[in-house]
Write a structure and sequence with these properties.
Keywords: DNA integration, DNA recombination. It comes from Brevundimonas vitisensis. This is Tyrosine-type recombinase/integrase. With 383 residues, the chain is mostly helical. The protein folds into two domains: 164 residues, no CATH class; 168 residues, Orthogonal Bundle (hpI Integrase, Chain A), CATH 1.10.443.10. The protein contains 15 helices and ten strands. Helix 4 runs antiparallel to helix 5. It starts with a strand and ends with a helix.
Length: 383
């Protein structure tokens, strides 16, 4: 039997080949004996050709196939794999994908909404429920790509699912931006090897995961026409960002050093090996390390308490707000941030509208004050 268990999951997995085709995934059970029974059943179904019709695949089988064909190529694999497993368990690993309807997903969403968790702080014994955004990512954003591929690529005839009706309403984020020397205050709380990454995020609005792009996606051959391809798009399309010459020069130098050190990212730190005349080596920075460093810097700088700034995504908000303020062009802000739908960019316009409203109020107040002053002066002259 080819069942096994990984440290990251309590459930036993299966993995075997039949007629040149690989079958693998979670059995959804926590005992070896039950897992072996499920694997035997799947083997019989595969041998009889019952799984040749893609609609007859179980959700777990479809998730495993999607992961092998596409998901494993995406960045943020550990986080994505964990979300998919939560979705599969909420729907039911052995549910046939041909039987997954809007109602089935709705019931699974309710199950996910009720799955409480405790924070890691030792002094916090309360149980929290997942936020609507977390539920949407775990359920809709995880299930939808699998079922779309099953229909378009594997030829499965599946029920239509109203994803829009299922999506839980999320509170609109309020874009935040750095004023004065606030960005410098954040950088002062970071070690110097993070500074270029922070400047890049604040200027171009890249998501943190997008900043860890493959070296081949950075085109700096001509510094005057340099660009970087960002692949971590919600809609799945690549996003091309043009680079200013000074940033292109910085990234070109980093790319050259990264290639010489056999690194896969332009973000690294220098480390001097111990001993006399110790050699300097480069160590790649990571997404997780950047996320933690920025969260801590926001807290230590006081911006978390003062303005609610929590981490890397605030740099993206800052970039969008700066572009909109500088140009007044919502389409340019949309192009910079790579929003597929301009409705996403409208959040930044609403923030600017608030500033305009406050400005109008001040203009009106000043005009009223001036008019009152003129009236008073006129009265004095008349008297």
């Amino acid at each position: 039997m080819s069942v096994y268990r990984t440290p990251k999951s309590p459930y036993w997995q299966y993995d075997f080949q039949q007629k040149g085709r690989r079958f693998h995934g979670s059995t959804g059970v926590e005992t070896r004996r039950a897992a072996e029974e499920i694997e035997r059943r799947i083997r019989r179904q595969a041998a009889m050709g019952e799984l040749d019709d893609a609609a007859q695949m179980t959700l777990d089988q479809a998730a495993g196939r999607w992961w092998a064909e596409h998901g494993s190529t995406l960045r943020g694999g550990d986080r994505l794999e964990a979300r998919i497993e939560r979705a599969v368990m909420a729907v039911g690993p052995q549910t046939r994908i041909g039987a997954i309807t809007t109602d089935v997903v709705a019931r699974a969403i309710q199950t996910r909404r009720g799955q409480g968790f405790k924070r890691s702080k030792a002094d916090d014994a309360r149980e929290y429920l997942p936020k609507p955004g977390t539920v949407n990512r775990d359920m809709i954003d995880s299930l939808r790509p699998i079922l779309i591929r099953a229909r378009k690529v594997w030829g499965a005839k599946l029920p239509e699912i109203d994803w829009q009706a299922l999506r839980m309403k999320e509170p609109k984020p309020k874009p935040r931006e750095f004023a004065g020397d606030e960005l410098d205050q954040v950088k002062a709380q970071l070690r110097p090897h993070w500074h270029d990454l922070v400047d890049m995020a604040a200027r171009y609005g890249c998501r943190l995961s997008e900043l860890f792009f493959p070296l081949d996606d950075l085109d700096v051959f001509d510094l005057g026409n340099a660009r970087v391809k960002l692949r971590e798009r919600k809609g799945g399309d690549d996003h091309i960002v043009p680079l200013l010459p000074e940033d292109a020069a910085m990234l070109a130098a980093r790319k050259g050093r990264a290639q010489a050190a056999n690194l896969e990212t332009v973000w690294f730190r220098e480390r001097r090996l111990p001993g006399p005349g110790g050699k300097t080596v480069l160590r790649a920075l990571t997404y997780a390390g950047a996320s933690i460093a920025l969260r801590r810097a926001m807290t230590r700088s006081g911006l978390r308490a003062a303005k609610g700034m929590k981490g890397a995504h605030d740099l993206r908000h800052h970039s969008g707000m700066q572009m909109l303020r500088a140009t007044g062009n919502l389409r340019l802000a949309q192009a910079l941030l790579g929003h597929a739908d301009i409705k996403s960019t409208m959040v930044y316009a609403h923030a600017v509208e608030g500033d305009v409203r406050n400005g109008l109020a001040k203009v009106h107040a000043n005009a009223f004050s001036a008019a009152s002053s003129d009236t008073t002066s006129s009265d004095k002259k008349t008297g």
